[in-house]
Write a structure and sequence with these properties.
31% of the residues lie in helices and 22% in strands. By secondary structure, it is an alpha/beta fold. The protein has a seven-stranded mixed beta sheet with strand order 5-4-3-10-11-13-12, with helices on both faces. Helix 7 links the parallel strand 10 and strand 11. The termini are far apart. 38% of the residues are buried.
């Protein structure tokens, strides 16, 4: 990355913060990155009206914050009309859920996260939404029988079904996309954001993809190049157009072509 691009991105990041109240939290974050440390601060993104969100020191939260509130890879390129439910599958600490419910103020939300530490922050971050969004502690997976993940892989992101041989394997509850939407009383117009760190290949290889019937758009990350073609084929057969998200290494915007957003061809 060129120096000019770095400066531009830093300016975008600083422009998203609320001044002067974010000055001290930002100083603490910078100190933590340089010298280590733990704890938590609150930053106040301007794009969500200055509402405070928790950012943990010594974690990838600040990178996630930047990607959500500055890069905004998770947002559809245009507002999807009539969205009644936003389902964040792989919600991390809740930044994308909060942002999307700001874009869709009449929608409800369900945010699903499998890692316990992330989930604790997610649940607290969603409290400010006043009950509009439900937090679910589970992995998005192919069935509801539970699944293991490697709890030692935080820097490279947690992925369900990858704990084989790990000394830090953690077993968590699991939920399918269909069960998640049904539990949230899924509406005919759902927006799904799915970032499940490679588990998307198994999820889209399942026979039961009826949950796609109620989905108007999916903001999807596909983490392996070999999975792009088969997942794209599944979505296109289900009536979606699939396009890479500009600037994102893994992001794809999948929008239903049927004008009513319901029913697969």
């Amino acid at each position: 990355m060129t120096a000019r691009r770095r400066v531009r991105r830093l300016g975008q990041f600083l422009g998203e913060l609320s001044w002067p109240r974010d000055a001290w939290p930002l100083l603490r974050l910078a100190w933590s990155r340089a010298f280590g440390g733990s704890g938590e601060v609150r930053l106040h993104p301007r794009s969500i009206g200055g509402r405070g969100v928790a950012v943990r020191l010594g974690t990838t939260d600040l990178v996630t914050f930047y990607e959500c509130f500055v890069r905004r890879y998770h947002r559809p390129s245009r507002v999807i009309p009539g969205v009644a439910l936003v389902a964040d599958m792989g919600a991390n600490v809740g930044y994308t859920m909060i942002d999307l419910l700001g874009v869709y103020p009449s929608a409800r939300g369900v945010a699903i996260e499998m890692d316990g530490a992330n989930f604790d922050v997610l649940a607290r971050n969603l409290e400010a939404l006043g009950g509009r969004a439900e937090a679910v502690h589970a992995a998005v997976w192919t069935d509801c029988g539970g699944v293991e993940y490697d709890a030692g892989s935080a820097e490279n992101a947690y992925a369900a079904g990858t704990a084989t041989g790990s000394q830090r394997a953690v077993r968590v509850a699991s939920i399918t996309p269909g069960d998640a939407l049904r539990a949230a009383h899924g509406a005919p117009r759902c927006l799904v954001k799915m970032d499940i760190e490679g588990a998307e290949a198994a999820v889209f290889a399942c026979q039961d993809l009826g949950w796609l019937d109620s989905v108007a758009a999916i903001m999807l990350e596909i983490h392996e190049d070999d999975d792009v073609a088969p997942i794209t084929a599944v979505l296109e057969r289900a009536g979606f157009t699939v396009a890479a998200v500009e600037g994102s290494p893994y992001g794809y915007e999948c929008v239903r072509t049927a004008p009513d957003g319901g029913g697969r061809p």
